[in-house]
Design brief:
It contains nine helices and six strands. By secondary structure, it is of the alpha/beta class. It has a domain at 53-187: 3-Layer(aba) Sandwich (Rossmann fold), CATH 3.40.50.1400. Keywords: Cytoplasm, Heme biosynthesis, Iron, Lyase, Metal-binding, Porphyrin biosynthesis.
């Protein structure tokens, strides 16, 4: 349709903030291959946008909002779990930056929200014979409770942007089953969805790419 409409340049933005050869590169690559076949159409892909200031600020504010509602005693026993969609472990051996980018994101958010206790987890792994990146958020919840006695868990699934099944089920149901089981409190900030702050973030990402390539 873009080719038929005479569009010669397009910017591809995958709604996943972290780059992986398994996901973002694959999605954008397929669009670029098709554009090349058609001719006179160039797809300019955005690799990642996890460092975008407004993206980090959204999550800093969201996490702060949860912690501000806690008593000082509860905050001391609370832990933030920052997560994203797991991918097959084999990407790590190939030098994929995906895990490191999630770790960076967790550091930025924890620093901005002034949260001392935090960890990185993975969720929504596929059901395949190959191992996927861990620890899984449910296993991590149990481990943090047993090891450090945390009794309040704040989940920030920053690899996703909306309240879809992987958040509503994998976090709000499966993780809450675990927190209920261990007698801990469950918290999850609202996802970015179509909030003005998040739309402003995506606008900045696209405009920066436009300025660099067009």
């Amino acid at each position: 349709d873009m080719h038929n409409d005479g569009i010669q340049d397009a910017i591809a933005l995958v709604l996943a903030p972290h780059y992986s050869t398994f996901s973002v590169k694959s999605y954008v690559g397929r669009a670029q291959e098709e554009a090349e076949k058609l001719g006179n159409l160039t797809i300019h892909g955005i690799d990642s946008w996890y460092k975008e200031p407004k993206f980090i600020q959204y999550w800093v504010d969201a996490v702060k909002g949860i912690y501000n509602g806690m008593s000082e005693a509860e905050r001391e026993k609370a832990v933030l779990i920052v997560s994203a969609h797991s991918l097959p472990e084999k990407i790590i051996a190939l030098g994929d930056p995906y895990p490191d980018q999630l770790n960076e994101t967790a550091d930025y958010i924890a620093r901005g929200a002034e949260v001392a206790n935090y960890a990185v987890g993975w969720q929504s792994a596929g059901n395949t014979p190959d191992p996927w990146i861990g620890p899984d958020v449910q296993d991590l919840t149990r481990e943090l409770n047993e090891k450090y006695g945390y009794s309040s868990f704040v989940y920030a699934p920053v690899g996703f942007v909306a309240e879809h099944l992987e958040v509503l089920y994998d976090n709000d149901f499966e993780c809450k089953v675990v927190t209920d089981e261990i007698g801990a409190k469950y918290y999850r900030p609202e996802m970015p969805n179509a909030s003005d702050a998040f739309i402003d973030c995506l606008t900045d990402v696209v405009l920066k790419k436009k300025e660099s390539v067009l």
